[in-house]
Amino acid sequence: MTDRRRFWSTASPEEIAQVCADHGARIVPAQTKRMSRPVTDLCAVPAGARDRQMLRGQAFVVRAMTDTGWAFGETVVDGYSGWIETAGLDTYPDAKPSHRVMVRATYGKTTGGLKTPGAVTPLSMGTEVYVRDQTDGWSRIAWTDGPRTSDLFVPSLHLCPIDTKDSDPVIVAERLLGTPYLWGGNSAFGIDCSGLVQIACRACGMACPGDSDQQMAQLGETLDPGTPPERGDLLFWKGHVGWIADPDTLLHANAFAMSVTREPLQAAIARIAAQGDPVLRHARLTPGKKGV
To answer: How confident is the model at residue 146 (pLDDT cuts 50, 70, 90)?
Structure first.
């Protein structure tokens, strides 16, 4: 059976026709769109359960559409298939993102300057924006184009060029400490275990799929049981993954604490094992190797 998360890369023409018919969707010429909302859910079916999330500026290939406001397609960065509301695709400017948010969270303000009033739009780490210019520590970003063109202003210190690569994924993940746990979440406003791994890997220029089972199958090199853990290693359980922050500490988004937390490593392993889930894989992300 075709994995719905890889639908557009693996499904047969007959399967595509059937799924589109089941949801009242029509095939359209493939078109790449960018998210215009701060956060957009990527759903299993129209108006259905959240599989993952996409951030403003991230790219999505639309391959089918319904008349009820849903688009069926796949993410550009990792080919994750799903459904998104078309309302989240309509207003991103006709400009390729030049910068991304590198801090846990920031905002776009309708006015520049430290003490000026203005409406505020929250933006998560990983948001991709097009910077028109920078003045006095503020970056003017394109928000919408067309007859009602508008821009927002973001503190320049919160942005980095889009192709900048962090060197340590654990440092990136640590910026999200305290972020609420959200099943399928990929933002500073709510994130899950695999979202925390993915956002950190992407910031470091590492390819990374969206869900923990995909990450367990693809990321890094498997280490023998008993191998001493090192910073930046990943531990996998059934349906869960976490970063090794240091040999004694696990950094992970988890429902036990309902947030991104540091937890003593051996205590976490014992707690999860007591629930019936032993560690399934210990992986090391070695640059240049497959899945990294």
So the answer is: low
Which backbone phi and psi does 87 adopt, to 5 degrees? -60, -20
Order across the sheet with 159-161: list the strands: 128-129, 99-101, 159-161
**Rounded to an integer, what distance in angstroms lies between the CA atom of residue 26 and that of residue 248?**
53
CA–CA separation, 194 and 215 (whole Å): 8
pLDDT (tens digit per residue) in 216-273: 999 999 999 999 999 999 999 999 999 999 999 999 999 999 999 999 999 999 999 9
What's 47-81 look like in SS3? CCCEEEEEECCCEEEEEEEECCCEEEEEECCCCCE
* Rounded CA separation 200/188 (Å): 12
Look at residues 106, 110, 87, 105 and name the one whose alpha carbon lies nearest to residue 36: 87
CB 44 within 8 A of CB 34: no
In the structure encoding, which two tokens stand for residue 120, read together? 């505020």
Strand 131-135, strand 138-144: pairing:
antiparallel
Beta partners for residue 281, in sequence order: 236
Question: How far apart (Å, rounded) are the C-alpha atoms in residues 253 and 241?
Answer: 9
Contacts (Cβ under 8 Å, ≥6 apart) of 13 = none
Question: What is the Cα–Cα distance from 36 to 57, expressed in whole angstroms?
Answer: 6
Q: Which of 101, 252, 231, 255 is nearest to 183 (CA)?
A: 255
Lowest mean pLDDT among 46-60, 105-119, 133-147, 220-234: 133-147
Residue 148 has pLDDT above 70, yes or no: no
β-bridge pairing 70-75 and 190-191: unpaired
pTM: 0.94
Under DSSP, the state recorded for 235 is E
Other CB atoms within a 10 A radius of the CB of residue 249 amount to 17
CA-to-CA distance for 200 and 195, rounded, in angstroms?
8
Tell me, what amino acid is at 259? Answer: S
